[in-house]
Design brief:
Radius of gyration: 24 Å
Strand content: 5-15%
Structural class: alpha+beta
Number of helices: 6
Helix content: 10-25%
Order of helices and strands: EEHEEHEHHEHEH
Length: 280
């Protein structure tokens, strides 16, 4: 799903997400959904969003060799530090090469995103002729047109069979997600969904709905379940977590918790392709 590289929201959770009422949809071929992304009369209606990979190594794997730029690839046992000064100097160099490639086309104002860390490249709104010219550039490795794909499901764990009571990964490993950071490229999320709650999700027996219940054992059982469902089930995020909970449309910094520990709002690429956020 190429668009997930830069167009959608990335959610990072500390537990397994299990959405309610799963819907499995039939896989379909990609369809182009791009709309106008510029007011230039010579370009309007002719552009598509393209992802361009450049030849220089990304920050995560650059081991040195370019004059004036130290190696940025982490040493064995170390973590990649995107905020380190020598990494920022190198990624600034990569961005300059992106800009130079677009300037040569007269498309400097149509860049959507820069990629510097795990891939060296950028996304931009280009005409097919401009994309072809970029592909012929000796500093360009590949050019892909960005397509929109229909999602296959809104319940990945069910779709992959992870919840099977006997064979599912969750059952075999007794997985809860504690102290595990899972990065998810998502099509968006609703923070009120119980899937993201860090509190209990224990099913309440129907007997507890009876306001006239008198059996003391049943009353205590119902009270215990209610208390569990109000109790946070996850510890604080691991100390190695360095992300943030970024505000976006319908999303605030307070919508994260001990299960949904962070979120990022990536929308520029989606807007470049569709022109607006899908309502709802």
């Amino acid at each position: 799903m190429v668009k997930a590289l830069y167009a959608l929201a990335m959610l990072v959770v500390a537990g397994s997400v299990h959405a309610l009422e799963p819907q499995i949809v039939e896989r379909t071929q990609p369809s182009v959904v791009f709309e106008d992304v510029t007011t230039d009369a010579t370009v309007r209606g002719q552009t598509r969003t393209y992802i361009v990979q450049m030849r220089d190594e990304a920050g995560l794997v650059y081991e040195g060799g370019l004059s004036g730029f130290l190696a940025t690839a982490p040493q064995a046992g170390q973590r990649y530090d995107a905020n380190a000064s020598h990494v920022q100097q190198y990624t600034a160099h990569l961005i300059n090469t992106h800009d130079a490639a677009l300037n040569a086309l007269g498309a400097a104002d149509r860049k959507v995103y820069d990629y510097c860390h795990t891939m060296n490249g950028f996304a931009a709104s280009l005409t097919p002729a401009e994309a072809a010219a970029l592909k012929a550039n000796e500093n360009v490795v590949q050019v892909w047109e960005d397509y929109a794909y229909e999602i296959n499901t809104n319940d990945t764990s069910e779709f992959l069979g992870l919840n099977d009571r006997r064979e599912g990964l969750r059952a075999r490993g007794n997985l809860k997600g504690e102290n595990i950071i899972i990065g998810v490229m998502d099509t968006g999320a609703i923070p009120e969904n119980p899937s993201f709650s860090d509190k209990g999700t224990f099913e309440v027996p129907k007997m507890c709905d009876n306001p006239n219940i008198t059996n003391p054992h049943r009353i205590r059982a119902c009270e215990a379940i209610a208390e569990l469902n109000e109790t946070v089930q996850y510890d604080a995020p691991p100390e190695r977590w360095t992300g943030i909970c970024e505000a976006g449309e319908g999303w605030s910094e307070d919508d994260c918790n001990n299960k949904l520990i962070g979120a990022r709002w990536y929308v520029d690429g989606f807007l470049a392709g569709r022109g607006s956020v899908v309502e709802g």
